[in-house]
Structure to design on (127 residues):
């Protein structure tokens, strides 16, 4: 996953958003992904959360959200995991749980470091 800055040509509904993060894939021939392709779903999420809802006014927050998404999607890429796969039967086996445990356990991140900016997937009590 590569994050690029948009130019002043990037606009939504005739409003320009320079420096908006653009999430692009790295090459992954197994998944049929070419380097530089936008991660459409991640971009839809960022645009909705950061621009359309009208609750995020800071470019720094745009980039915080983009970095969190990028780290999770990179984790999936590097481990050849389909981030859309939710077929596991228990919470302990879920992909997001595995990523959370990796961040908290191996990387020593605090729970709030990774999941405190709009990515609160599980309540703190589940940790």
């Amino acid at each position: 996953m590569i994050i690029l800055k948009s130019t002043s040509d990037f606009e939504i509904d005739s409003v320009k958003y320079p420096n908006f993060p653009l999430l692009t894939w790295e090459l992954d021939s197994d998944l049929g992904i070419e380097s530089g392709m936008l991660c459409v779903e991640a971009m839809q999420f960022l645009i909705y959360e950061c621009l359309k809802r009208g609750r995020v006014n800071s470019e720094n927050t745009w980039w915080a959200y983009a970095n969190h998404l990028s780290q999770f999607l990179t984790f999936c890429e590097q481990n050849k995991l389909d981030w859309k796969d939710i077929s596991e039967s228990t919470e302990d086996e879920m992909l997001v749980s595995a990523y959370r445990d990796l961040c908290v356990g191996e990387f020593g991140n605090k729970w709030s470091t990774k999941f405190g900016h709009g990515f609160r997937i599980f309540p703190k009590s589940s940790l």
Remarks:
- The two ends are 27 Å apart (CA to CA).
- The chain has four helices and four strands.
- Residues 32 and 98 are 24 Å apart (CA to CA).
- The longest helix spans residues 59-78.
